[in-house]
Design a protein that fits this description.
There is one protein chain. This protein has 264 residues and is mostly helical. The protein folds into two domains: 66 residues, Arc Repressor Mutant, subunit A; 172 residues, GntR ligand-binding domain-like (Four Helix Bundle (Hemerythrin (Met), subunit A), Up-down Bundle). It contains eleven helices and two strands. Helix 1 packs across helix 3, helix 5 crosses helix 8 and helix 7 runs antiparallel to helix 8. It is elongated and about 65 Å long.
């Protein structure tokens, strides 16, 4: 006797919703180069006629693309839907949400940041122009002013700009987007620590100056080591392993945290 087939039930095959198909069509035009940043999409009515769908579906698709950071919806006589420039904001929000729900840990985020910044530093050592180095130097001066004034929130903003300028020195747009996203998330954590009364690295300005000297000398190994040490200290601050927390926070780090201490 042949075995009985398992009692499996299948759901009916459903077609994609109209607004999802519209989003896909617009993304296809972007991929093909037919649409570029700054381009204005046809009006809702015209899009609905071209695609053979209702205006409600077009409106829903545009809202979805706006949330994804692909289009900007402007009101007024000269308004409409415009293709946006690249913006890491959408990616930042996705990663932030994944951290909040526990899908990504702070250890994992720092581990990724360590490796990405390692690449950034090495590329910056190769590609940074005199203008890039001057911009970073001016940033360190502002960081020192904020430190002397005891304005730690302003110093955090200087740190965010520092990493943006360093990524820009690689002259790689993809790395700039990734670094901006990771930096924004970490800066949010730092702002919360400062608001709670925790003071960040008192030697930050010295660290920045050492790093800039190594970067200006095109010493990729030395600059990468300096950056790695600094990011480790930031991670200890964010996770409570900074010597100022309760005994429970000073327990031995996890295996993943220990891996962060290894040289990349």
């Amino acid at each position: 006797m042949s075995p009985r087939p398992p009692a499996v039930t299948f759901e009916p095959i459903r077609t994609r919703r109209a607004f999802e198909e519209i989003c896909e069509r617009i993304r296809d035009q972007l991929a093909a180069g037919a649409l570029k940043p700054g381009d204005k999409l046809p009006a809702e009515r015209d899009l609905a006629l071209q695609l053979g769908v209702g205006r409600n579906a077009v409106r829903e698709a545009l809202r979805s693309l706006e949330f994804a950071g692909i289009v900007e919806l402007r009101k007024g006589v000269k308004g409409g839907a415009f293709i946006r420039e690249g913006d890491p904001g959408g990616m930042t929000q996705v990663v932030q949400d994944l951290i909040h729900v526990g899908s990504i840990s702070l250890d994992e985020l720092t581990e990724a940041r360590l490796h990405i910044q390692h690449v950034v530093v090495r590329l910056a050592c190769e590609r940074a122009t005199a203008a890039d180095l001057e911009a970073l130097g001016r940033n360190v001066e502002r960081t020192e002013q904020a430190t002397v004034a005891g304005n730690y929130l302003a110093r955090i903003e200087c740190s965010r700009e520092f990493y943006r300028l360093l990524a820009a020195a690689t002259h790689n747009a993809a790395l700039c987007l990734i670094v901006d996203s990771l930096t924004e998330i970490l800066m949010n954590y730092l702002r919360a620590r400062v608001a709670a009364g925790v003071r960040t690295d008192p030697d930050l300005v010295k660290t920045r100056r050492r790093f800039l000297r190594l970067l200006g000398a095109r010493d990729a190994d030395g600059a990468a080591r300096e950056m790695h040490r600094h990011l480790q200290s930031v991670h200890r601050l964010l996770t409570g392993h900074d010597g100022r927390t309760a005994a429970a926070a000073r327990q031995a780090p996890s295996r993943r945290s220990a891996a962060l201490s290894a040289r990349p």
